[in-house]
Amino acid sequence: MDAETDATASLLTAAGWKQRLVFWSGAILVGLFISALTLLSEQAVVHLRAFFDRTPAGIWLISPLGLVLTVWLTERWFPGAERSGVPQVKAALAIHRDLTLRQRFVSFPIAVGKVALTNLGLLTGASAGLGGPAIQIGASIITTLGRAARFPLHYLERGFILAGSAAGFAALFSAPLAGIIFAIEELGREMEEKISSLVLTAIIFAGMTAYVILNHYIFLEAAEVTQPQGRAWLSIGYCGIAGGLAGGLFAFLLVRLGQRLSRAGRRTRWALIVLFGLLLAALATLSGGRTLGTGYPMLKQIVNASQAASLWFPLEKALATLITALSGVPAGLFVPSLSVGAGLGADLHHWLPLAPLQTMVLLSMCAYFSGMLQNPMTAFVLVMEITDTHELLLPLMATSFVATGTARLLNPRSLYEILTENYVRNLPQQA
């Protein structure tokens, strides 16, 4: 029986419809989880900022103690939920046939822990994004339900992980195209026809669920921008090189410092986590609270041109994000990095205004993101989708590739590729 005949036959069987209903339910559940992650994070940031405004000195107690508590809870009850989540998903894709071993990285408890602990980290003053957690949550939920429903191994090996990851990404950012591109560019360099249909279906169901609950399609309303004209085209190289170097330097430091930290003894490591908490408190105090949380409020203000950012904001936010990532708390990099890139664009415009402010802000967002992850297609599609600025497609595309090329001067290999090796290296040898 060929593939087409097999697919037609499955439409007429109870088992086939059972599998579809389970998969659709899983995609809807991903949308619910991502909505909960988003709504809780908004409240966490609001409450922490209110506390900081009332009692600024309190952050010096909350950050170190809260960081230690979050890391301890993660390691004690939710191992595998630490840090971003993207390297864990990539490590899960490297595991073949041993579905029990794969549960170290994608499981329902990890999805629950990721929601709770990412928000706990935000309450401690961490610079925590939601992108990585959303990807791991999506992969965990759909893979768990697929395994419970006894889907064919072909789907469980790669299809459900890719579908869940793309669904989580797309539901968070309201960016279905970027979700598909990310699944191809970062997680699966090539996708079969069956897997592609799974990804599309998961994105539709998860995205619509998140849309109904969160009531927004455009993740980030941008001020009006125009296509660069004449001399303004020079901003592509300017923003691309500067953003690529900045993003590449962030990735370089995260990898090198992370490697040193992994060799530290247990007592030294816990002492460093306390120090990281104190550093986060210092950055929050020096910046007036600008480094707290995901960075989305500042990102929104910069992109909307509703408030001028401090020239120090990109450095402050990048340092807070680096410290958070090194601490090991569940936290993503995407939204904080977009805010760093936006602030960098405002700074670049202040120093050399080659193009309108908002054009340089969006180009630098794309450049920093590309430089950090070396995923140029994901970067320009994501920025274009979340800001609804399709007229900047060509400049964003060119900037992302300039930035990626620049970043590779510092890091010949991508950030997530290196971080994934740390997980794969410790796996038992598979037959």
- How many structural domains are formed by the residues? 2
Radius of gyration: 21 Å
- What separation lies between the terminal Cα atoms? 30 Å
Task: Based on Cα principal axes, name the global outline.
Answer: globular
- Biggest β-sheet, characterized? none
Find the CATH topology of the largest domain.
Clc chloride channel
- Give the total of beta strands: 0
The CATH first-level class of the largest domain comes to Mainly Alpha
What share of residues are in beta strands? under 5%
Judged by helices, strands and strand pairing, the structural class is: mainly alpha
CATH-assigned homologous superfamily of the largest domain? Clc chloride channel
- The CATH architecture classification of the largest domain is Orthogonal Bundle
Q: What is the residue-averaged pLDDT?
A: 89
Proportion in helices: over 70%
Q: Helix-strand pattern, N to C?
A: HHHHHHHHHHHHHHHHHHH
Residue ranges: pLDDT <50 for 5 or more in a row?
1-9
Organism: Methylomarinovum caldicuralii
GO molecular function, one term: chloride channel activity
Pfam family, one: Voltage_CLC
GO cellular component, one term: chloride channel complex
Describe this protein's structure.
The structure is a single chain. The radius of gyration is 21 Å and the shape is globular. With 431 residues, the protein is mainly α. It has 19 helices and no strands. The chain has helices at residues 3-11, 14-54, 59-77, 86-93, 99-102, 108-123, 131-148, 153-173, 176-187, 193-214, 234-262, 266-287, 296-304, 313-327, 334-351, 357-373, 376-387, 393-407, 415-424. It starts with a helix and ends in a 7-residue tail after the last helix. The model is unreliable at 1-9 (pLDDT under 50). The chain folds into 2 domains: 3-214, Orthogonal Bundle (Clc chloride channel), CATH 1.10.3080.10; 230-423, Clc chloride channel (Orthogonal Bundle). GO terms for molecular function: chloride channel activity. Keywords: Chloride, Chloride channel, Ion channel, Ion transport, Membrane, Transmembrane, Transmembrane helix, Transport. It is found in: Membrane. This is Chloride channel protein. Its main location: membrane.
